[in-house]
Amino acid sequence: MRHGVAVLACLVVVGSLPLSVAGASVNASISNVEVSPSSPAPGETITFDTTVRNLESSDAPLEINDIAIRKSGGRGVTEYERVSNLGSISPGSTLEVPLTASFDSSGSKDLRVIVYGRDRGTGENVELRYPVKLNVQDRHPQVDITANDSVAGVESTGEVTVANGLDTQITNVEVVVEGEGVEMTQSRTVRSSVAQNGSVTAPFRFRPESAGEHPLTATISYTVDGDTTRNTTRTTVIESDPLRNSVELDTSAVGSGTDRALRVAVSNGANAPLSDVMISATSENASFQRVLLENISASTTRQVRLNATMDEPRADVTVTANYELGTEAEQTTTETTLRSVPGTIDLTGLDVIRQGGRLQISGSASNVGSTDADSVLVSVVDTETVTPATPNRDYFVGTVPASDFVSFDVYARTEGNVTSVPLEVTYLVDDTRKRQTFDVDLDRMGGSAQQPEQDGDSEGGDQNSMLPVFVAGGLALLVVVGVLVRRYRRGDDDIEV
């Protein structure tokens, strides 16, 4: 990994040492050497603007043959630049000459600007010297690259942070990110300036073309001191995972009656977001609405409701999710069955009371469905050990609305060791006759009905002695009527309406 390194170079000493070696008629000096940029970096061109002054006290012009910039001290002569044939400077005038140099390495640089001239009055040579000391540092703003986890074929994000630790602000800051084996979908950010000790963040977006390692390089271009442009780079390596597609659909029925719907849970087990997710359902016996979801993040679940219009009580349904994963169009399906919930009768709150030789069975015909149940009839089933009894061998409940109940009472006689009494319930739902049988456990028996007390009066006793005769006659009449009614009802039961 290569790191871009900030660069700072500071002018440490610019001495004003007017050295004059002149004849009697010339008084001249190097009055100033201005260094630009003031913070040079290795490899950067540095300009030394040299001002040569011929003082008014001079009696003759100073002819400038050469001006050079050299390394001060050490073995041999290291000269960085020399300019020649610059003309003459009259007394009281100045000459400004730019010299340039660059240094490949950082560190302290001891330099000297030398002017080679001739006194026009005496013809003698004149040499002027001016020392310059620079401290060149390999220093740039600090640069850091961060990138989120990435997946092959899926756009991801990152950012470059530029922190300006230089002793001056930087301007015209441009950040460009490039990568190998990645498609950059957003790569360039420009900022007008970054203050000293300030920072700026540059976002970028990229899409790895394949799984594996990919280098990302950020190049930062900026300007210091108004006109000096510098560049620095920083590289990091990202690891991209292979794309994994794992999407599951889970369905459940909701609603009631014909107002039914499917609740669909879409679980994204992939390692990338799903986009443009379309949830739909098809069936021969029902139609469904469709729902569009913009995206589903990785490792999350979203639920939608698909309202249904059912043509029949049962519908076999195929649920489909179409979505984009990375750059690929994918599809996941599941099968389910949707049923309407018709009226259904259940017997609840059952209670059994013995009354002499018969049993009174009471309870509620409860509609546990979501549509009405019509023509509800509760009857005692005639078996070898159970016989329907008066006054209610069966009980016509009528209509039981959805999620409602109607009470009933029926009677039965038993013979032998009987543990339960069968009851039959018939009713109509959506013009279809339903028939169910329930066994009423005699353990539900709640007690026995009170018998009338005997009166001790003899007249009352005589009247009571006649009571069995009347009772027997009445019972005989009820038996005859009951048989006729039972036959009549059985004849109706054989007719389906």
Structure description:
- With 497 residues, this protein is mainly beta.
- The chain has four domains: 28-136, Sandwich (Immunoglobulin-like); 142-241, Immunoglobulin-like (Sandwich), CATH 2.60.40; 247-339, Sandwich (Immunoglobulin-like), CATH 2.60.40; 345-441, Sandwich (Immunoglobulin-like), CATH 2.60.40.1230.
- The protein has one helix and 34 strands.
- It has a five-stranded antiparallel sheet, with no helix packed on it.
- A hairpin with a 2-residue loop joins strand 26 (345-355) and strand 27.
- The longest helix has 36 residues, at 458-493.
- It is rod-shaped.
Q: What's the total count of β strands?
A: 34
- Gap between N and C termini, in Å? 88 Å
| CATH fold title of the largest domain | Immunoglobulin-like
Mean residue pLDDT: 83
**For the largest beta sheet, what order do the strands appear in spatially?**
1-8-7-4-5
Q: Determine the fraction of residues in helical runs and give it as a percent range.
A: under 10%
The parts where pLDDT drops under 50 for at least 5 residues are: 1-23, 447-473, 475-481, 483-497
- Please outline the major beta sheet: 5 strands, antiparallel
Instruction: Report the CATH superfamily of the largest domain.
Output: C2 domain
Q: How many domain modules?
A: 4
What is the SS-derived class?
mainly beta
C-alpha-based Rg, rounded: 54 Å
Shape assignment: rod-shaped
InterPro entries: Ig-like_fold, Transglutaminase_C_sf
Protein name: CARDB domain-containing protein
Keywords: Membrane, Transmembrane, Transmembrane helix
Organism: Haloarcula amylolytica JCM 13557
